[in-house]
Amino acid sequence: MRAAGVNPGDWKLRDGSYGTHGQAVLGREVAGTVEQVGPGVDLGAFAVGDEVFGGCPGMVGGWAELAVVTASFAAHRPDGVSPEDAAVLPVAAGTAFDALTALDLPAGATLLVNGAGGGVGIVTVQLARARGIAVVGTASPGKHELIASYGAVPVAYGEGVAERIRTAAPQGVDAVFDLVGGEALRIVAGLLADRSRVRSVADKELAKELGGGEVVRDRSTAVLTELARLVAEGALDPHVTDVRPFTDAAAALAIVENGHALGKVALRLP
Fold first, then answer.
1. Is residue 140 helix, strand or coil?
2. Distance CA 125, CA 142 (A)
3. Which residues of 253-265 are buried (b: 16+ CB within 10 A; e: fewer)?
4. 17, 51, 188, 252: which sits with the fewest CB atoms below 10 Å from its CB?
5. Band of pLDDT at residue 255, cut at 50, 70 and 90
6. CATH level 2 (architecture), domain 3-88+238-268
7. What is the pTM of this model?
8. Which spans in 169-220 are helix H?
9. Residue 181 and residue 118: Cα distance in Å, rounded?
10. Which whole number is the average pLDDT over 37-49?
11. Which residues pair with 51 in a beta bridge?
12. Helix count (H) and strand count (E) of the chain?
């Protein structure tokens, strides 16, 4: 192990939200050096000594000196991509990539990202803008400057948000990618003529009730390879703002759990 990402799913796993309290190692996404190749893995794809990144299977997480990574959800780490940047791609960036693939918006369309200031939202903004898609992003005022720096039009949460979105996108929005859920999702979905263009990772059941759906994760080598290529070329910034030694894992998790992270948080392992 060289680095691991820190995500909301880690504290939810710790608290037993997935029915696994006390039975799991935290860490869903990692980067490191291959020490051993498992049975059935194509040796032409991965070999001992390769620098890779990817996702961990089941409850065997990556906050450890050694970790198991699923070969079909792993990719080689390019020289120009740091272990910390690579380690945070599988969860947040992968989700953003899969959401845009599902929505399949053409260049010139307008996407509303509901909750654009978090790890998934920031990557979604960048990937959408690279495809020629206009983006309006709801977020707390403290994250407006960041969202705007990546090419989106920021809009504040709260009372009157629908009208502010209409002002930011006078021609309307063509799709909604939701990272907030609840009443906030219900309000922004009301801006769409076709609610099948709603995708949510925060409130899947409500999204379906409204006529949309969830984001089905691809979790493939191809997606990770493409994301790493974009990072290496400078077209995508994973926005890792806090890298901590493994000994600070508890503090790193607390930052994510409390919602105080201004970007992605990663652990650096010795």
1. coil
2. 17
3. bebbbeeebebbb
4. 17
5. very high
6. Alpha-Beta Complex (3.90)
7. 0.94
8. 182-189, 204-209
9. 14
10. 89
11. 33
12. 10, 12
Tell me how far CA of residue 36 lies from CA of 19, 43, 50, 83, 120, in angstroms: 30, 11, 10, 19, 31
Helix (H) or strand (E) holding 229, with range, is helix 221-232
User: What is the rounded average pLDDT of the residues 103-120?
Assistant: 96
Q: Which residue has the higher pLDDT, 140 or 60?
A: 140
What's at 116, amino acid-wise? A
52 Rama class: left (phi>0) / alpha (psi -120 to 50) / beta: beta
| DSSP code at position 62 | S
Query: What is the distance, to the nearest Å, from the Cα of residue 93 to the centroid of all Cα atoms in its chain?
Result: 4
Instruction: Return the CATH architecture of domain 92-214.
Output: 3-Layer(aba) Sandwich (3.40)
> Per-residue pLDDT tens for 177-199?
999 999 999 999 999 999 999 99
Q: What are phi and psi of 244, to 5 degrees?
A: -125, 150
Q: Please compute Rg for the chain using Cα positions.
A: 18
Q: CA-CA distance, 24 to 215, in Å (whole number)? A: 25
pLDDT (0 to 100) of residue 42:
81
Q: What phi and psi, each to the nearest 5 degrees, are found at residue 101?
A: -65, -40
Residues in CB range of 135: below 8 A, 6 or more apart: 110, 111, 112, 113, 116, 124, 125, 128, 129, 151, 152, 153
